[in-house]
Amino acid sequence: MSKKPRVIVFRTAGTNCNVETTFAFKQCGALVDEVHLEKLFAGKVKLSDYHIMALPGGFSYGDDIASGRLFANELRIRLGDDVKRFIDDKKLVIGICNGFQILVKAGILPGPFTPGALKQTATLTNNDSGKFEARWVHLKVSGKSVWTDGLKDIIYIPVAHGEGKFIPGDEKLLKVLEDNGQIAFRYVKADGTAPCYPENPNGSTEDIAGITDPTGRVLGLMPHPERHFQATQHPFWTRLGGKSKLGDGAKVFQNGVDYVKKHLL
Amino acid sequence: MIWRVEIKDKEGQFDSLGSGVHRDILDLGIETVDAVHVLLVYMIDGDLTAVEVERVCRELLVDQVVQDFRFDDKPFSKSFVKAVNAHTIEVAYNPGVMDPVEASALKGIRDLGLSGVKAIRTARQFVIEGELSDKQIEFIKDKALLNKIVQHAVKKPADPFKPIVLDRVIQDKPQVAVLKMLGLADKGLVELSKKGQLYLNLAEMKAIQKHFASLKREPTDIELETIAQTWSEHCNHKTFRGKIKYTYKEKNKTKTEVIDNLIKATIFKATRSLDKKWCVSVFHDNAGIIKFDKEDNVCFKVETHNHPSALEPFGGSNTGVGGVIRDILGTGLGAKPIANTDVFCFASPDYPVKDLPVGTLHPKRVLKGVVSGVRDYGNKMGIPTVNGAICFDDKYVGNPLVFCGDVGIIPKGREKKAAKKGDYVVVAGGRTGRDGIHGATFSSGELTHESEVVSSGAVQIGNPIEEKKVLDVLLQGRDEDLYTAVTDCGAGGLSSAVGEMGAVLGARIDLDKVPLKYQGLNYTEIWISESQERMVYAVSPKNFPRLKEIYDGENVELAVIGTFTGTGKLELVYHGVPVCKLDMHFLHEGTPKIVKEAVWTEPKHKEPSFVCPSNFDEKIRQVLSDYNVCSKEAVVRRYDHEVQGAGVVKPFVGPACDGPSDATVLRVKLSGDKGIALSNGINPRFGKIDPYWMAASAIDEAIRQIIAVGGDLKEVAILDNFCWGNPDKPDRLGGLVRAAKACYDFAVAYGTPFISGKDSFYNEYTDKGKSIAIPGTLLISAIGVMDDVTRAVTMDLKKPGNLIYVIGTTYDELGGSAYLSTFGLVGNNVPKVNAKAALQTYEAIIKATKKRLIASAHDCSEGGLLTALIEMAFAGGFGATAIMKAIPFEGDNKRDDVILFSESNSRLIVEVSPENKRAFERVMTGIPMGMFGRVQETPEVFVYGLKENLCLKANVHELKEVWKKPLQF
Question: By C-alpha distance, which of B288, B299, B335, B333 is closest to B485?
Answer without folding.
Answer: B333
